[in-house]
Amino acid sequence: MAISRRNFIKATAAATALSMAGLPGKVLADEQVSYGRAQCRFCGTGCAVLAGVRRGKVVSIRGDADSPVNFGRLCQKGYSLPHIMYGQDRLTSPMVRQADGSYKKVGWDEALDLIAGKFAALIKTHGPDSVAWYGSGQNTTQEAFAANKLFKGIIGTANLEGNPRLCMASAVGGYLNTFGADEPAGSYDDFEMADCFFIIGSNTAEAHPILFRRVVNRKTAYPDEVKVIVVDPRSNATARFADLHLKINAGYDTHLLNAIAHVLVEEDLVDHEHLKHCVLRKGLKNKGAFVDFAAYKAFLADYAPDKVAGDIGVRAADIRTAARWFGRKGKAAMSLWCMGVNQRTFGVHMNCQLNNMHLLTGKINKPGSDSLSLTGQPNACGGTREQGGLTHLLPGHRAVANPKHRAEIAEIWGVPVERLPTKPTGPTMNLFHRLGTGEVKAMWINTTNPGQSLPNASVHREAMKKAFTVVSDVYPTRTTELASVILPSAMWVEREGIMGQTDRRSQFTPKLVEPVEGARTDFWQIAEISKRIAKKLGRKTDYRVIDPMSGKVKKTRSVHGLGFETEEEAWNEYRLATRHQDVDLWGATYEKLKAHAGGVQWPCPDTSFDNRGTAKRYVSRAYAGKVIGSAKRNYKTGYVTLYDQHLEEKGLAGPINYYGGHPFHKGAESKAIIRVLDAGLDYEMPDAEYPFVLNTGRVTEHWHTGTMTMRVRLLREIAPAAYVEVCPADARALNLASGDELKLVSRRGEIVLPVWVTDRAAPGMVFVPWFDENKMINLLTVDDPKSWSGAAEPDYKVCAVRLEKV
Amino acid sequence: MPIASAVIVPVENENREMVAERLRRLSDVEVSGVGAKGVAIVLEGESIDEMKKLSRRIADWDEVLEFQLAYLNWEDLEDD
User: Fold this and answer.
1) What pTM does this model have?
2) B3-73 — its CATH code?
């Protein structure tokens, strides 16, 4: 009997829901819709979706139940993915700004020739550091690798930064200072085995809802045993779920974390066996002295809960409870954090302090235990941290300033080593400052919206408008309006690419549909510009063919351009750059990435099909068997190891080996470093003139600057505009009611917003989301270098404002 | 006309049947099954707006912990 299209879709819908409800349901074969597995375009969780395509358009979405990340679940942003592609105002033609400020549509060749001509002329006249790239944690790894090669390998400048600097840099600093190696030791699998969740500076329920669902499920299954601790000045959705909400005064996180460490030590919740794998050192990097445990204990005496609880704004007893729950012997603990920790003056310190808690208690390298920094973008880890998309980095966790690393990458790139820059220029905020002074004269901004997202935005908006600025994006934004040239980009499943997420996971997204007419992939744009610039500069690159299984390299010719033409060729060259590094993705072949839901977790040196990499780092196979109970975890397709494949490949001694080779780790070989760090306050705390703290962040409906989610009617209608959260006590004092207009004034700018009186807000602090391009809160936020964390990440979470009722 | 499916997770697991019964009384909802992880339903709406209202209404029920969307299809069904 023929089945109608409507009934067919309903049957498919029912089968999907039945499967998620734990019941058998058979999805019928659909001849009209073809499904492809892709990674969600939004946050850094890395949910796998099955995108249904009919007549060249994405028409349906379901979560991929085979994915070990989301198990078929998606959040409302994930379900909105098709709609982000078909907004009425998609950019479909290159445009060039005219003398009168208007934009003229031009053909691709004209636009590309104009950009390449301008960049090449500036390089010849003013040197390579007169041009720059500002990319994104949303570029695919192939795009980021191609841009890195163009700017560092062909042009020869280290003027290459990306928005992960404003997002994850402090987390990198924390991991490097603690382990000498970036990214976490454990993986998402730990959610299902944790007995305590310590969540700080992260509204996980709204910003990472699928991961929070795993917290909820764990807590719901074991309501008495599992404890959820949330540290946040706001009573947000995450805090409301907590067993213990430490509603601290804004700025006092470092005090709290030292106070918790004090209790862990004082009450001997320390794992002395694990402590043998650690050393203790004062300060960050290599400046301070190594100290012994007694000295650390003495240092922590100043942070006894009774001494600091008043400043922190919570009860001393609650600090003790948090420490006791976290440090319970024989139980697992997982800490989760995000921008509330990273985008802070003491962001690197706080990251180290969180790692300290795990090192002290031995709650790492065990099932359910990990210090897991959540990431905000779908490829901040892959495209920037691992690939080397910042001024001081080269691919595969290498450093621009290291001659050996430069030689290795020049060889892999097929360019003369002399062409590579020998030292970094400056981090993101410094780069935009130099754009403002005219030292940098041209910048290509790709897949990001700094005209809305940079702190103290008005200053940097002026700089972007004055310089020769190229902006590649999919919709008009507050940055395209500043551009000299706008390039319309393909998005999500209009192009193929690989992205890397939070737990060292890389996943493949295939091209499922053609780009909207007129748009081109960013990879193609970079390749075309590279050809043109290289030709004008007379610089050639070896074009090589790499055998994806053996790694054998064969040079075929010299070309003007990148030396690879397809995304797969770029990936294979990048794999080569990671081979034998700690971030080893050599085993992540295209074949594997396409086949395995959930992708591959590095280190994965082995190309054999079933090997999907490493779930637990820093431990030996024998340790995994003894402590974790198994050496591997099997999935529907393939397996991950619960021991570190890099450790085994290099023959490094176990059972635990913190082998990180970063210079910050010098003197601590094979051991992790517990950093002894004084507490401190954010750069711009409130004062008499500006008595309130301004805190900024996300809402669940929108992502980043709203470029995509504001094109989705459903999401736009639920959350149409920014507002300011004010707590009831402050509202009474200021005679404010919900809906009133309130002017927020900082030392850098002002903005008027409608008030929402809510007990989500904390006394003395207001909160404003940053998605609204018409109410740009970053006109007020702070960019002073003194506000930067040790990793040059500015402080978006604490800036001083005064409030004026309008 | 959009078609979606979802899993409705009750606050108390023992209330699954009661939640399912209440769902069955809604005109644009079909209950597909009651499983260990919740009640599987299929929703149809004249528009996304209608579907949004309906899903919010269900999510707001006191006995519902979570409205978990499982599938969403917007394709034009003019051939029906």
Assistant:
1) 0.92
2) 3.30.70.920
